[in-house]
Amino acid sequence: MTQSQITLGAINLEAANPQALATFWASVTGSEISIGGDSYYLPPSGTGGFGMFFQPSTRPRSETQIAHWDLTVPWGSRAAEVARVIALGATHKWDVLEEVAHVQWSTLADPEGNLFCIAEHPPVSDKANSSSV
């Protein structure tokens, strides 16, 4: 069986204000906005990055969110990144810091209420040490 070469190309979002949401996410990811009509595109901001595409909403926002994305940062930098993203306009929802040995994360919402997480994974040596305690 051949191994798949699938990668994430872009996250596509409908937004009440696509320009404002694209501006928020450009600040989060460090990407530059590309405008195409009434849509906004953020290309990947580096190797392993992902693009984001924002277009006007065509219907009322759903009360539930079927999917969200997890953003990963280096171990020890989650709290600073959460603070940075909140300063950009995100809302802190909750933290999961001790329930799972292999990851800690904070769940936030962007300015239009889309949930996302900022997660950090301990180095392999820390995971081995924490499991023997």
TrEMBL record:
<dbReference type="Pfam" id="PF18029">
    <property type="entry name" value="Glyoxalase_6"/>
</dbReference>
<protein>
    <submittedName>
        <fullName>VOC family protein</fullName>
    </submittedName>
</protein>
<dbReference type="InterPro" id="IPR029068">
    <property type="entry name" value="Glyas_Bleomycin-R_OHBP_Dase"/>
</dbReference>
<feature type="domain" description="Glyoxalase-like">
    <location>
        <begin position="11"/>
        <end position="118"/>
    </location>
</feature>
<dbReference type="InterPro" id="IPR041581">
    <property type="entry name" value="Glyoxalase_6"/>
</dbReference>
